[in-house]
Amino acid sequence: MSDQVYKNFDEIDGEILRILAIDPRAPYSEIANKLAEAGYDMSGEGIRYRVQKLIDATMVFYLIDPEEIQWEIVRIFVRTTDEAGASEAAYEEISDMSFWHVTRSLGTYDIYAIGFEPSINEINRLVTEIRENEHVDEVWYGIVTDWRTDMEQYYSKPE
């Protein structure tokens, strides 16, 4: 990511991301035509500038569809103990486990993690390992049975 934070994300950026999500190789001229259809008149150079800023401000990762490889998705919520440094220590330890997404947060839980494993037995092993962590107070988890992704919402600018 660039040193300069991309602070001015707007509707045009969201539209560019939607276009690129459908066709990552879309030429700037095609993006300009689609933006014009959406009511935004931009030059190819303006689009190139915005695309570069978006690339600098985004992270790229490839998600395997767990159903295609018959794995189970697990989402884990962890509340840590009240000891000083417990949240940081548990976060570091859980980050070293086989989760592909781990976050620390404020609220009803301290750590949230998403991962997938080849079997429910492996998920149970992970949950047990987390529960046995000295910095962990409680663990809630769910094995995902269905999901819906709305990229329109993801690429929309928050109100």
From TrEMBL:
Keywords per UniProt: DNA-binding, Transcription, Transcription regulation
InterPro entries named among the record's database cross-references: AsnC-type_HTH_dom, Tscrpt_reg_AsnC-like, WH-like_DNA-bd_sf
SMART domains: HTH_ASNC
GO MF annotations, alphabetized: sequence-specific DNA binding
The keyword Transcription is assigned to this record: yes
Top-rank taxon: Archaea
HTH asnC-type domain ranges (all copies): 10-54
Record protein name field: Lrp/AsnC family transcriptional regulator
Taxonomic placement: Archaea, Methanobacteriati, Methanobacteriota, Stenosarchaea group, Halobacteria
